[in-house]
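Lab manual, section 2.4: Encoding a predicted structure.

Procedure: take the sequence of the chain (247 residues), apply the prediction step described in section 2.3, and record the output as structure tokens. A sample record is shown.
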Amino acid sequence: MDSITRTYDPATLTPTQLDGIACVACHAEADTMRPVGIINGAQVFACLGCVTTIVTQEPQAAPQLPPTVEARAHDASVYAYLGFKAQWNAEMEAYETQRARKANGELPPPAWLAEDPCPAWCVGDLDHEASTHPADRSHFGATMTVPLVTEEPVAAGHPYEWTQPELQVSIDQRYREKEARVRLAKDDDNGVYATLEEAEQLAFTLLDLVRQARGQEPPKLQLFDSQGRCVTRECVTCHAEHQTGAA
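Recorded output:
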């Protein structure tokens, strides 16, 4: 490269040139090539007729900001830092005040609980504070678990040990929701929610399946749902809407 007279701009190269197939100067593909640089970790090439006149174009330096703009940008970053720091200090002080008042029995109920008081089954405590974010506000009941002995064992707990996975069942009602739901899950991360009516129907179905599997006769006393209807969907008296839909 003793007589370099031309440059090429990596930003203007075509895909074939970036792939090392075509010459970076004349786009020729059939000629013998020589490497002339590396772009994004891959070599680019020039044909023998162009190789002695090629050099990579140096990237242009970013333009300098005018002094007044530079000063305003600096001031904005300082103000943002000071504002964030002041907010963080205020929140830390508020948490300390909250903990102290709670320890002394002087902490009033959070304002949001006044309009959405806890149901009798709610066992929430840490999530029922004035500092709780609206997205985290929830009423939840105790989790009941059923070990699934026919499932593959899992490593769980602290310290880890072999145990059977469990089916978790609990009640959950988000902030300002009109009705609770029943949550069924195999672990903390994967679960489904059912309305009370859906959970009730599921309970009746499970009991009936267990009865059938055990070869037992149907109960003489029929179970009814919360609206006083029997659980047999074919009953025209209790479930006339299903019969109408079927017709």
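Check your result against the sample. The first strand starts at residue 33 and ends at 39.
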